[in-house]
Design brief:
The protein is mainly α. The protein is 28% helix and 7% strand. The chain is built from four helices and three strands, in the order H-H-E-E-E-H-H. Strands 1-2-3 form a three-stranded antiparallel beta sheet, with no helix packed on it. Strand 2 and strand 3 form a beta hairpin. The longest helix has 24 residues. It is globular and about 45 Å long. The C terminus is likely disordered.
Length: 165
């Protein structure tokens, strides 16, 4: 991993061997993340402290209203402190809906990597991430379509065919 401290990502305290052999942390290969950070397409920020309505409260006190939040939580259950709406998680803190599905109490909240089929958790997390990207694209497309107002010629055309010229 190159030095990205100037972009807000601290260098690990230990090296690859120590992290893997002694700490049991498996490295994840970069598939474009470093380039995305360097180009500014991805902006690392402080840890998420809480979600308050449309705002995200960071550990450093900053409040943001992002379009998207990708929280890499380490695939651990017990997210009750982070995820606010009741009923989104089971008693162990695992999400009730994963992948491209979401819970009615949190319509724009998605989870990946919390299921571990025989094909493996990392492969499954990728499958779920693609489903989330598809759902998000569909959501943005749906939001971009203007809703015609009654009396608008566009609305009449939708209801009765083309407007007379």
């Amino acid at each position: 991993m190159p030095d990205l401290t100037s972009r807000g990502l601290p260098r690990p305290r230990t090296g690859l061997y120590t992290r893997n052999a002694r700490e049991g942390v498996n490295p994840v290969l970069d598939h474009g993340f470093v380039d995305a950070v360097r180009s500014g397409r991805v902006e690392p920020v402080a840890a998420v402290q809480a979600f308050e309505g449309p705002e995200v409260v960071l550990a450093d006190g900053t409040r943001l209203r992002p379009d998207t939040v990708i929280a890499a939580t380490g695939y651990r259950p017990g997210l009750h402190d982070l995820v606010g709406p009741p009923g989104v998680l089971d008693e162990a803190g695992r999400p009730l809906a994963v992948g491209g599905q979401n819970h009615p109490a949190a319509p724009r909240l998605y989870f990946a990597g919390f299921t571990n089929p025989l094909t493996g958790v990392l492969r499954q997390a990728g499958v779920e991430a693609r489903a989330i990207a598809h759902a998000f694209r569909h959501e943005k497309t749906r939001a971009a379509v203007p809703v015609p107002r009654p009396g608008d010629p566009t609305a009449d055309a939708l209801d009765n065919g083309p407007a007379p010229s």
